[in-house]
Amino acid sequence: MRIEYFIMVDRIRSLSTKDGLVVCEATVPVESTIYQGHFPGHPILPGVLLVEAMAQTAGWLILALTKFERFPFLSMINDAKLRDFVTPGTELVLEARLMHEGSGFARTSNRVLAGDKVKCEATTTFRVLPFPTPVFRQSVTAHALQVGFPAEYVTNAG
Amino acid sequence: MSTTFDTVANIIAETCDIPRDNIKPESHAIDDLGIDSLDFLDIAFAIDKAFGIKLPLEQWTQEVNEGKATTEQYFVLKNLCERIDELKAAKGA
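^ inputs. structure came back:
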């Protein structure tokens, strides 16, 4: 997890479009300036960043479903529950499951675990739109390979 | 068994917190009920799930933007329900 770059997923552990499921991993940084404010003497990962981590996890699944033809832009967050503190150094497992792939949108249910404990969960909806620029698409493609995006889903990526 | 309109009206009422009695077959989802595109995603999700179909929202939007169709054809509820029935029939064919 590289908070300063808003990169919340370290690695894709598994991804299946057939099952509509992606599982990712992320380690919460031990050091970050964010903890100076959130909170002094009680450092925890802000809940909004956990929601972003769930959205990015789901995003990898949707990118695979669209074969990198389109990008999922987060549009709605529902039923978000932040169940427990997430502290520096925690190793997280992030899961996203496809609920529905509609026309120009997709909805996923997501959760984040530390060990066998669910730390948070949310439902997320995305507008799934053509990549706005080739540069953006190339950048996402390059990052996908860095985080272990399964090569068979990247074949159409430019 | 509820009609397509009843199901759609109930979805809209629940999703957008609009009194059920205000939702008529002649209502335009956008102009009369004030439903915006984001709320309509919620409605589309619920309709897709309720009827086992996939509303072709992108195709409809493109047709409207290109002047090939009017919003009334897709977003007046009685017309929307006709489209839904067509999609249901096509799925069952």
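Helices of chain A lie at 34-37, 47-65, 134-146. Residues 21 and 97 of chain A are 5 Å apart (CA to CA).
thumbs up if we can close this ticket
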